[in-house]
Each structure stands twice: as C-alpha cells, then as structure tokens.
Amino acid sequence: MVVLPRPLAGRGLLLLQQAPNRRVGWMRVLAACLAGIAATGLFILFIDAVSIRHMFTHASPALVAYMTMGQEAPAAGLGLFAVAALAAGAVGAGLALMPAYWRNTIFMAVLLVVGMALLSELISQVLRQILNGRPDRLLFSQGALRPAVAAIAAAAVFAWRGLVPRIRLRVRDRLPQLEPERQRQVSLAVRGAGVLLLLVLPWLVGSYLSEVLANVGLYLLMALGLNIAVGLAGLFDLGYVTNFAVGAYLMGVLTNSGPQATGEFNFWLVLPVSILAAMFTGLLLALPVIRMRGDYLAIATMGFGEIIRLLALSDWLSPLIGGSQGILFIPKPNIGAFTFQTPQHLFYIILAASLVMLVVINRLDLSLTGRRWMAIRDDETVANAIGIDTTWIKTLAFTLSAASGGLAGAIFASKLGTIFPHSFSLLISMNVLCIIIVGGMGSIRGMVLGTLVLIGVPELLREFAEFRFLLYGILLMAVAIYRPGGLMPARARHYRTEPAPQPAGGTPATSSSAASG
Amino acid sequence: MSESLLSVSGLTMQFGGLRAVDNVDFRQDTGTIVSIIGPNGAGKTTLFNCISGFYEPTEGEIHLEERRITGLPPNKIARAGIARTYQNIRLFRNMTVLENVMLGQERLLRTTWLGSIFGTRAARRETEEVVERSHAILAFVDLDATADRQADELPYGDQRRLEIARALASEPRLMMLDEPTAGMNPSETADTERLLQRLRDERNVSLLLIEHDMRFVMGISDHIMVLNYGRTIASGTPQEIRTNPEVIEAYLGSSAQD
Ligand SMILES: Nc1ncnc2c1ncn2[C@@H]1O[C@H](COP(=O)(O)OP(=O)(O)O)[C@@H](O)[C@H]1O
Ligand SMILES: [Mg+2]
Questions:
Q1: Contacts for A233-236 with beta carbons within 8 Å, 24 or more apart?
Q2: Which of A64, B72, B84, B213 is most buried, with most CB under 10 Å away?
Q3: B1-81+172-258 maps to which CATH number?
C-alpha cells in the first residue's frame, strides 16, 4: 500500500522542479494530482468493468483490489485513493518548495535508507565477516531494515551534512598555514591511510565483494588505458576489447595446462609478454586507421574488435587457442608455493596493477607527451603545424592505451581460469567507453568514479542485473544533457615552477618530491 | 642569396579550374618584415598554406635558407623554423593559456614518451624550463595574468595575441601572421600593431604578414607584395607600392572608396 503514493509524490516533485516559480508550482501539483486521480480512477473503473486480460495479463482483479486498497467496491476505494494521492502530492510539493539544502539532505537520507534496505543481504554478509556472531540482526530483522536503524541512518545523514562543511573549512584554513615539510607529511599520511584501507579491504568486505572489487579493478585498468586514446588524444577507439583479448589469450595459451598447453610458463613471466603483445597489436592496428578521423575511426576500430572475436572463434586458429571450446586450465598466479586462489588474493594483484597504472597515467596526463595528445584532440591540423608529428603521437596513444588493456586481459584470464571467445564481445568496448564518458573524458578521478558507478553498483544490485544497460543508457543521456564533461570532469592542468631551489644539503637521493603538476 | 631567409619561386596552387596562386616569386631576407596585401580571394592565405605545408603546391619551389621545404609535412616545416597564425583563430581551445604557449615550443623539446612515463629528471627539468619560458613569453604579450585560464575564455583580442605568443614560443626563424588584426576594434588593433613592432625591435623576428590596414602596413614593412587573382601585380618598398598605378587601381583605389 505504501507503494502506491510514491510515484505520485515523484510526479508532483518533478512538475514542481520544472515550474519557474513557487506559486505556479502549487497549481501544478494540484493539477498533477487531479489529473493523476482522474486518469487512474478511470483506468480502475475501466479494467473493473471490461476485461482486457487477453491483452494485458496483469490487468487482473487482484490489481484492481490492490489499487483500490482492498476495498470491495471500486468507488469506495477511489475515495481513499484520492486522499492518498493528495497527501503524496503534498509531500512531493513540500519537498520541492523547501530550500535545496534540505531537499538534498532528505534525498540523501532516503537514498541511504533505501540503499541499505536493498543491500541488506550484502551488508549482513560484510558485518558477519568483520564481527563475530550475528551483528546483522541489530540492523535487519528477517531481511528487512529495522525502523529504528532507518531513523538513525537518516539522522546520521543530517548530522553529516551539518558537519562536513565545517570540517572542510577548518582543513582548508589550516593546511596552507603548515610548513611545506609538515604539509608533505600530512598528505603522505592521508595517502598511507588510503593504501592501508585498500590493503585490508578484501578482508573487511569478504569474498563476494572482493570479487566485485576485482572486476571493478579490471575495468578501471581498461578505462585508464582507453582514456589515453579517447580522453587525451580524442581518438574514438571502439575496438578496445582487442587489447583485452590479446592479453587474455596470450596468458591463456602460454600458461594453461589443458589441451592447448604450450609451455605452461609462469604467470609473472607471461604478464609482461601479454602487455607487449597487446601494445604490438595496438601498434599494428593503428597503422591502417591512423589517418582516419572521427566516425570513420570509430567504425574501423569497432571492426577490429569483431575480427579478433571471430578469429578466436575460428577453426583455423582452434588448434592453438581452442576455438569455441576456449582455453581451459589456466593456473592462478603464484609466488613460490603461495597461490593467489581466492578473490581476496587476486584483489591484491589487481590493486597493485591499478596503482601502478594510476601512477603512470597520472604522469602521462601532466607530461609534455600528454600535452601533445591533448593538442591533437583540440585541433589536429594545428598540432601538426606547430611541429608535432601527429601520425607518430597518435600511434603512440593507441599503443600505450593498448598496454593497460593487455594487462587487464592477462589478469582476467588467470583469475577466471578459462577463457572463451564470447567473453570478448563488442559490449566490453562499449562498457569501457561508457565509463569514460560518464566518468569524465580525460579525468583520472572520473575513471575511478565511473568504474565504481557503472561496474560496481550493478554488481551489487544483482536483482536489477537485466536493467544494467538501461542504467547505462539513462546515465549516458543524463550526463550528455546535464554534465557534458562527465561526473568528474577533467580539471585544467596547472603547472607551477618551484619558487626557490631547495637548499642543497641533503643527498640527491632524498630529493625526490611529489609529481611535477 | 646567402642572407635570403625564404625564397619562393614559380609557386602555383591549382584547385580544380581555379589558380588560387599563380606563378608567384618572392624572396625575404632575414630580419625583415614583408607584407602581402590584396583583395579578398586574392590567394594570400593559400600562399601561406603552401609555405606551411598544408597544401602541396602544384608547381614551384619553396626554400627556407638553403633547405628545400616544398611538399614537406607541416610538422617538418614547423621544425625547420616557420611558425604561423591563422586568419580564423585556431587555439587549443580546451587547454589553458599557458599550455598553448608550452605547446608552441614543441620544436625545441627533447622529452620523449619514455621520459614522460618514467618521469625522468631530464623530462621534469624540461617541463619546468618550458613552463618558465612560457610565462616569460606570456609576459611579453601581456597575458601572463591569464596563464591558468582556458584559452577560449579569453576576449577575442587576447586570443589573437595568444596565437602570436604560441607562434613566438617556437623561436621561429620566420613568423607568418595571417590578418592578425582581423575582427579587432580600433584599440585592440593598436595594441596588436604595437606588439608587432616590439616583435621586430625587441625580438628581431622576421615577419611575413598578411594585413589590410594600409597605414600600418606602409609603416612597418620593409617590402610589400600585392596579389590579385593569385598573381603578383606589384612588389617593392612601401613607397614604390604607394605610387604604383596598377596597385592604386586594383586594390588601394577600391579600398579607398569604401
Ligand atoms: N582548399 C581549397 N579548395 C578550393 N578552393 C580554395 C581552397 N582554398 C582557397 N580556395 C580558393 O582560392 C582563392 C583564394 O583564397 P584565399 O587564399 O583564402 O584568399 P585570401 O586569403 O587572399 O582572401 C579563393 O577563390 C578560394 O575560394
Ligand atoms: Mg585569407
């Protein structure tokens, strides 16, 4: 019964947000409620009188009963229904009329409570992982969120909203006043804490969430790589899966102990080989398309993605890479006697790879090479005319971008233990491209956020797995309309020259400082 | 011949049936300012595009000092020491003012992609040098206060000067400016003209200029070339051009009337 007023409140709110001023807003809410009541009422009366079940199987008496809140006669139910609709409309309108700060706060609180309820299973699991006994019983009873907990969570949001700006202000006031040495210590401590948190994370969240995080990490690797081509150099590469496939197949072929066994080499030996092979493929595929621009490039690279999948499927290569049977018995990575068996173990390999790539990409992003890429993105002709060898620099973008995809593919193969051609579909390229567009082209923070939102969240909401691409579609449209730069747009790169040379007292080895940006 | 900086001989650029540049010859000496004038559609920009390598000329030769640069790709020509600006501003719009000038120095850079990835000492030092030089150049064109702003946020006149700064950043042997005052209001025009004078006096830059402001062209040029329908109809000192009857009829006369 609670379900019913919700869409109405939503509708009232939506209409109000579009309204230019408040008075008109009230009128609209009223109009919306009345229209909603009239339309729904007519609908109820209609399906009660005429059976349309042969067309709409769900238009059943049960639905009528539900919509009239269990009243026998639809007419009596309609009265109740109207009251509920008005009340809901009033709630929606009240939300819209209050100051944005409070509205956002309430939204966040609702989001948190609904999120907790949706993720009840997951949260219970994590809690049981960390604490002994059944700590989850404190929060949930029979899988449902306890009302008191919901209230506390909501209150926490309000407190948080009040506190955060104050903390931020204090930090912002204090930090620049500290001595540079001290500042560096603070930033180092913050980073250290972050890394420490990441290190214990798999044991805090358990095996399932570690698996989710590992997948997020693999996509992050690909997003960081493709971001070089798309985000920095402006080259729309729709065939990124090619690099992922090359990395995966090389790892599979060279390490497996199944029918395709070739040498059963060690993971760590093959890893760099996979990366180099992916780079080499990236280089080869760049050659024919390097003079294409825009749409043509996108179509051509998309073709490569399909070619690589068909090659993997082909009988011609099947003696080597297994055709549609795929490659089986790919061993997990190991160091000596220790094998990275569980998702928690594998998380560390992916974390290490991600951190290394983050450092490398961050450097490239601020470097003179990064400037050349961005110049090509903004105006290729002029970039050429100031002396940039655009052909080479674009080839370089494809090649380096491929490295990260190959790395992700290699880890993927070893993590899964088996690979099949259908794992390397166009969808992977599309997903990675979505991450870049939604996260923010050319923005490293955007890649992280984009991967969490597009890969992490759908994994958590398994019930809604079928709607994943609906979510992508909606997000893409919303971003295109409301935030063309992505959720976290790339920031302008600022360069500061050192104000004064450091006193040359220490040894050269100790003078390594933070990034040049 | 020894002090000749740029020499163009028999240059022709044919677009289908149209000879946009028709058998043009000229020479420019180091340290001089040469201006090209002529009505719209005369082929001035096309001549620039041939010299900077955007078009491969149908016929003719272009030499920078002793080096033949005919038909080289634009980046090689830029590296040889020719920088240019565009009739329609073409900045790197989404990058900062500073970055635009940093990029202008491309032909002087030695940092490779490996240096960038590994953040080598040499790469870091070069980045710092580039940033410092960029600030100095921005100060020269009076744009240093805007260094961290996005290029397309600048007012129109400043964008034009930024384009000149980007060209200047490569320490070019020859700088080609295509209508640097186009679309400017009188005060911006005066600023730009002063800047070009300073380029000559303080930086000793050799300039090849397309410009419509006759008073200014007459004042600053060592040599003027008049194009009409792709052909050189006159070439000489400002004094010679001013008194050339053909020029007066084809160009000065018509522009004096409007
Ligand atoms: N890429 C091109 N293709 C065909 N015609 C061109 C091209 N570029 C310029 N033209 C033509 O060449 C002539 C000279 O143009 P342009 O050099 O831009 O003149 P100006 O710069 O002197 O005003 C014009 O008639 C123009 O239409
Ligand atoms: Mg022109």
A1: A233/A373, A233/A374, A233/A376, A233/A377, A233/A393, A233/A394, A233/A397, A234/A373, A234/A374, A234/A376, A234/A377, A234/A378, A235/A297, A235/A394, A235/A397, A235/A398, A236/A294, A236/A295, A236/A297, A236/A298, A236/A301
A2: B84
A3: 3.40.50.300
